[in-house]
Here is the input.
Amino acid sequence: MISRTAAAAAVIVQLLAASAPALAAPPAQSAPIAATAQAAGPVAYRIDPTHAQARVSWNHMGLSRPGATFETIEGVIRIDTADPTRSSVSVTIPVSGADTGVPALDAMFQGADFFDAARHPNITFQSRAVRFTGLGNRFQVEGDLTVRGVTRPVVLDAVLNGSGVHPMTGAPAVGFSASTTLKRSDFGLGVALPVVGDEIDVQITVEAVA
Here is the structure.
């Protein structure tokens, strides 16, 4: 019998193989990304920082859920269509890109009591494993997240939004969304606990081009 993991991996390969000029669903089959990847090995897709964003939100005194965005995300997504579980993600997020919409809070985020940007200018994520959930284009990415010099294991729940030929560049492109929940205290970010919540909801969206 075919395992759920193998079946899900096959679905992802089929999704990656579907290329369309407008990245629309259902896509018209054309020069498939999968065929190129299988011929040349794993394909590296570089994240487009102009179409990538991380959003975080938290509980504030039980009254509201404010948030911040990180507008700059850099990195590479390597996709192995022959064995999707061997795919990988490497991401760097400059702390300087944090934007809460409140200048005083932005300044606090950069300071020594919070991200300590002078000593730790980047947040990084390096994947260790990709696991399929058996739900079509959904999968999990296990990896190491480093914030403020502290590294902790994190699992991202990810979705392949689409793949195809980029309508402006003509290059193979992919798009993903991912989410997770963190405890900021795990990374030494204990300012204002417990008045301001410990759990941080994270939502990420990226486009990447080969």
